[in-house]
Design goal:
The strands form five sheets. Strands 4, 19, 20, 21, 22, 23, 24 and 25 form an eight-stranded mixed beta sheet that branches. An eight-stranded antiparallel beta sheet has the order 8-9-10-6-7-13-14-15. It has a three-stranded antiparallel beta sheet with strand order 1-17-16, with no helix packed on it. It has 675 residues and is α+β, with helices and mostly antiparallel strands. Among the domains are: 243 residues, no CATH class; 61 residues, no CATH class. It comes from Streptomyces meridianus. This is DUF1998 domain-containing protein.
Length: 675
Amino acid sequence: MSNETRFVYDIAHAVDPLGDLEQEAEKAAKHNRAKVGSARPSSLLYTYGPGAIMDLPQFTIMPTGLDDWDRIWRRRDSAPLQIHAPRLRDVVRMMLRSPDVQLRPYPWQPKKHSRSPEGNDLGVPSRIFPQWLRCTGCDMLGLLAQFDYRNTHPYRTDLAVFEHAKCTGRAGVGTRKAMRRTAIPARYLLACPDGHLDEFPYDLWVHRGQPCSKAELPALKMVDRTAGKGASAVIQCASCDMRRPMNEAQGEAGKAKLPQCRGRHPHLDAFEPKGCPNATRLMLVGASNLWFPATQSIIVMPDSPEEKANDLADRIRTTLGDKLAKYRANLELIRDLLDERVDVTRISDQDLEQVLQAASAPTDSPEEQEQKLRDWDPVDLLVPEWRHLVRDIFGSRAEEPKSGLTLATRERGKDLRPEITRVLAVERLRKVNALVGFTRIDDMDRVGDLPRRLAPLTRTPRPAWTVATEDRGEGIFLQLDEKAVAAWEKRVLDADVWKSHREAHRRNFERRFSETAGQVDSESRLKPPRYWLVHTFAHILIRELALTCGYSAASLSERLYAWPAAEGRDPSAGLLICTTASDSDGTLGGLVQLSEPSRLQRVVDSALRKAARCSSDPICSKRTPQTPEDFLHGAACHCCVMASETSCERANRFLDRRFLLDLPGSSLGFFQVHE
């Protein structure tokens, strides 16, 4: 192993589909190497990224770590594509503790037609996981090697299947003639809070930690005759007739019967060198808390002159590497070395000297990196966006081709709510999303010691890149009156409803699965009242806009700018409702048209009028968390405010209609302050 490797790893078992194909070709053997499935980039980022389990029609797979993806690119003459988003890239570098991380798209190439060969050498390498399978005909439970793989149709990925070649069926049921039967994944796994995942040890489980007394390789069966939920199966050993139900592994009593975590990362095919001290937990293959992505995203804004200079210096540093220090004094040679990779032809020697000085500056020490990470606030990603959106536009339209951002001013309708002070039509925007890791059992926002709990994407401690997606779309930006928001927020902070929300948030935080949540002050994770206001307003607008803009409500998403004044940043209160997609569907214009004065006025009035009444009232309008309740919303439910998970950035937390309007028994409505 190299000095950069931080895991116990056997390179002989590397996932390398193209390498396997080359080896088979040398042996003159013919095998079908058809792909087993496909997924959209957004689903590979938010649902089925490295370390997640993806359901295919007949079995499940796990996308591997990014180290294995590099083998795909190395077989191409051209360098991997990069996504230009310096502001996001710098944050990703800080979170991954690697100064050279680049943002790359998923390995994919469009085809001229469905059967053309372009891009056949590109794809996301994956491995079968879990590798314990159960025969649907006879209940045989075995490892992958005990079953046959069949994938004979290159254009029918749904026909790829593992089969038990000589299944004779269940004892006493029908014919005993041997036939081929489909095998499906055995659904139990072991996970730990530090992101490790492992196969369930069925052979040790049924024999209670001891080897089988009758056979070295016992014949196992998984019998499941019920349609109930949870661990309803029974593991049987046909060799020694021992049996043990899986429900013994459930609950608090079951934890003591499970083995300690081995520190396994199956997506890296590696183990922690010092093991793992955690106890394991029983998980199901399809559990929703098996994989939570840790992502960061930005709306790309035009670069300032300082940002452009810093980005140029970074590109020179990463392109030249060690040659930068060696040939630093020879500007002519530096220009020749950069050639077409970094265009410096229009830069004078004096300016190039300044850029090289910035490129040669030492990177942060590990201690400085850790301090930056501790001091960093996710709001820092939003501040540049807010500052650009509230900036005055010269003329009625501002277009910036490099960033992909096009803004158009809109007049305020004469009857538009006075609390809304600024309206912008975002005719075009570009959103970049990057993956920095993942967690298991708890969401990224729900853990206390995030750096330790974040599972890595690579075996090397300093990854050279991470995967990102680039979406384009349109939207509407609204800014609220800051003076009115500040006065309203002051009233809310003294209200009994807010005190109830604070206590509910504290209880919610303390009851999380994370054993380390106690190390974090719950108040630091509670959003201020203005966030609740802007968030609730965004949700009712999404519901109303979806009725007339041509996009479904699930296609619309929110970008919230709501924070009080702090050192280095002004207060904000605004929102961006946008729709984005990886193709032109995100820029059809239906949403932007609703920013016109008369149309927007009708949308806002209708949304507020509908928010005043819910079909679940008076239960919904009077909902306030009381001890021992710990839900993170007030007067809000799926009938009136809550949105789909693709639209909401906070999983429908921090919502309350009472902060928008005066509901019965409440006088905290923001939109009635000036009436």
